[in-house]
Every structure is written in C-alpha cells, then in structure tokens.
Design a protein that fits this description.
Pfam family, one: PepSY_like
Helix content: 25-40%
Protein name: Putative beta-lactamase-inhibitor-like PepSY-like domain-containing protein
Largest sheet: 8 strands, antiparallel
Shape: globular
Structural class: alpha+beta
Number of strands: 10
Keywords: Signal
Radius of gyration: 24 Å
Number of domains: 2
CATH architecture of the largest domain: Roll
Order of helices and strands: HHEEEEHEEEEEE
Mean pLDDT: 82
C-alpha cells in the first residue's frame, strides 16, 4: 500500500514538473528582448502596449497612442521593420491617394478597410475594396463578391493589387 502511495505521489510530481517546463518554454518564446522594448519606447514614447507577439525572430507590439491602434514590428536586434495602422474610413487617405483611387478602375467599388504601412522604405496605403455585389442565394450566402487590396505610394502611384479570397 505504501509503495502505491509513493508511486502515485512521484507520478503527480513528475506531471507537475513536466507541465511547468512546458509553460516555461511557452513564456520564453514570447519574451521580448530588452533592446526591442527600448527601441519601441524610443520610437513611440507615449504608446501603451497591449500585447507583444513573436514570429520568425520579429516582435510585433499591438499598441495604442492618441486614440489610434497600430502594430509596430521590430527585428531581434531592435531595428524597426514597419508599423501598420488600420482604419475603416477612407478619410484617412492622403489627397493624392484619394485622387488616384477615384481615377482607378476600382473607383466604384466599396472601401471597407485601409492599412497605412510605414517602413524605412516609405509609406504605403493598402486599400481593401469589394465590388459591392451582394447578391444572395437561397441559403442566404453572398455570391460573386470580389475583394481586392490595392496598394498606393504616398504620392498616389499605384504599386500593386491583389485579389483576396
């Protein structure tokens, strides 16, 4: 009887130990290096960080500053990679981008989201549009709606377009 209690106690202790190792590894995976945190604070001194995410040796802070939410990404050495700010309103487009969009083949399409991507290479506007073709089948599913992402440089030059499914 005593050996069964001892075996059970050792088994429980081993399980607790293994579980704590797994959680420790998960936490270490998302730890943000001090140099990355310092680089973020230097670039965005008034920002409030909600969360950090680590992917492929890059660290992305989900942050908020002056009422704007954005995602700032830094590499493992603390170098700024880019910052993405998401908007649901076309009023955030620069005048040259608005004008270029009005002259594009997508001018009649519905703008449902905008990403402003800032990077060391410059600023790009990603305009997400759909054709507003909201026909519905017998199962109340939308049919034939096409979504695109159109990228413009800050000066209004269209860089590329992608179909989103």
């Amino acid at each position: 009887m005593k050996s069964i209690k001892t075996y059970t106690a050792l088994t429980i202790m081993a399980m607790v130990f293994c579980t704590s190792l797994i959680f420790a590894q998960a936490n270490n995976k998302n730890e943000v290096p001090a140099n990355v945190q310092a680089a973020f604070t230097a670039k965005y001194p008034n920002a409030q960080v909600k969360d950090w995410e680590a992917v492929n040796e890059q660290f992305t802070a989900k942050a908020k500053e002056a009422g704007h939410k954005y995602f700032a990404t830094f590499d493992k050495n603390g170098n700024w990679v880019n910052t993405v700010t998401k908007y649901n309103w076309p009023g955030h487009l620069s005048p040259p981008v608005k004008e270029a969009f009005k002259k594009s083949e997508y001018s009649g399409w519905h703008i449902y989201a905008i990403n402003i991507v800032e990077s060391p290479a410059g600023q790009v506007y990603q305009v997400m549009v759909d054709d507003a073709n909201h026909k519905i089948n017998a199962n109340h599913q939308e049919l034939f709606t096409v979504n695109h992402t159109i990228e413009f440089k800050q000066d209004g030059n269209q860089v590329k377009q992608n179909i989103i499914n």
